[in-house]
Specification:
The chain is α/β, with parallel strands linked by helices. It is built from ten helices and 24 strands. Helix 1 crosses helix 2 and helix 5 packs across helix 6. The relative contact order is 0.17. One of its GO terms (molecular function) is N-acetylglucosamine-6-phosphate deacetylase activity. Keywords: Carbohydrate metabolism, Hydrolase, Metal-binding. Belongs to the metallo-dependent hydrolases superfamily. NagA family.
């Protein structure tokens, strides 16, 4: 049995820190955390201080390393995107296809089947559209948006069975309560987003099994004192999880701090990047559905905009969102790490990752005290 012993760093197990301890892994899985005077035999990996954590999990990654999934929805693209985010600590992600044709969605589903089997960081697939509301289209193409049909329900259920983890973002206006219930009971993870719905319509779908809300505050009906909208329903509903983009551009930190304090119940806010192809790339522009998206430098990180100024995804990576959380959102380091590991794992029902417990995947990231990534391991192997 190939055993490795990690020493020298504080260990964050997904819930709490362990000081003066060692992480033991064997055959790509976590074995245990032990005192430093109680070490088994094995290869010793000595770390120079800092923090050793479970690898980060990102449920919404449109692109990276110069590649957009929409440009080529293939297994090769998914591998490139996963590799582009690995230097920033993301060891599991869902490649995300934004609103596109039925043919593109089918290709992404087929590609994800193989990418998940390859076990190189692709944990499933996120389809963000085409079942979104034109009134809240954001950077998506409204002309491709449409309601969910029976054939879509069947296709999503079949895809979930083949891929394992399938996340689908839908507007409440485009999916019925009965359809949500059928999909949820079949294991499809439904997230409400790009929606102008009422709080009541959102709550009906949460109660039917929709688990989350896609990039809270962005592209959705806002919180009013008499019309709480999707934002109010998401914060108030106890079992609903909410992805947030913490880049200094998508949401004002005051709004995020308020949501973090107000979120009720078991569901939590967790980090997503909504990253586009420029993460891990030196280019300053790319094409999205025939439109140019340009990088505007400045602020906490660059922002990506269409010609009319509409935000088009983000230029942020996961370790940067953790730094943003600690610096601007009043988060402890432990909570910021949970929002990049434990919480997205629970939202996606990825029980074998996001924390360091016996039997979980040894997907690891080592951080300096300044929260810079120094090394990563995928199933216990340096990556």
């Amino acid at each position: 049995m190939a055993r490795k012993i990690f020493l020298g760093a504080r260990i964050f197990d997904g819930e709490r820190f362990h000081d003066e301890k060692a992480l033991i892994i064997a055959d790509g899985r976590v074995e245990t955390i032990v005192a430093r005077n109680d070490l088994p035999d094995g290869e010793v990996v000595t770390l120079a201080g800092g923090v050793l954590s479970a690898g980060f999990i990102d449920a919404q990654v449109n692109g990276g390393a110069g590649r957009m999934l929409n440009d080529e929805p293939s297994t090769a693209s998914m591998d490139i995107i996963a590799g582009g985010h690995r230097p920033y600590g993301t060891m599991s992600l869902l490649p995300t296809l934004i609103t596109d044709t039925s043919e593109a969605s089918a290709a992404a589903i087929e590609a994800a089947k193989e990418a998940v089997k390859a076990n190189r960081g692709v944990a499933g697939l996120h389809l963000e559209g085409p079942h979104l509301a034109p009134a809240r289209k954001g950077a998506h193409l409204a002309e491709l948006m449409r309601p969910v049909e029976d054939r879509d329900v069947k296709a999503f259920i079949a895809a979930r069975e083949a891929i394992g983890t399938l996340l689908v973002t839908m507007a409440a206006e485009q999916v019925t309560v009965a359809q949500v219930r059928e999909l949820a009971e079949a294991g499809v993870t439904i997230s409400i987003g790009h929606s102008d719905c009422s709080s009541e319509a959102a709550e009906e779908r949460f109660d039917a099994g929709a688990r989350g809300v896609t990039h809270l505050f962005n592209a959705m009906s806002q919180l009013g004192h008499r019309t709480p909208g999707l934002v109010g329903a998401a914060i108030d509903h106890p079992s609903t999880w909410c992805g947030i983009i913490a880049d200094g551009h998508h949401v004002d930190p005051k709004a995020l701090r308020t949501a973090l304090r107000a979120k009720r119940g078991e569901g939590k806010l967790f980090f997503v990047t909504d990253a586009m192809s420029l993460v891990g790339s030196e280019k300053d522009s790319f094409t999205l559905n025939g439109r140019t998206v340009r990088r505007e430098r400045g602020g906490f990180c660059s922002k990506l905009v269409l010609s009319d100024g509409t935000l088009a995804g983000s230029d942020v990576d996961m370790i940067s969102t953790i730094r943003y959380g600690v610096t601007y959102l009043d988060l402890t380091l432990a909570e910021a790490l949970r929002m990049a590991t434990l919480y997205p794992a629970r939202f996606l029902r990825l029980a074998d990752r996001g924390h360091l417990s016996p039997g979980t995947r040894a997907d690891l990231v080592h951080l300096t005290d300044a929260l810079a990534v120094t090394a990563t391991w995928l199933s216990g192997e340096a990556a």
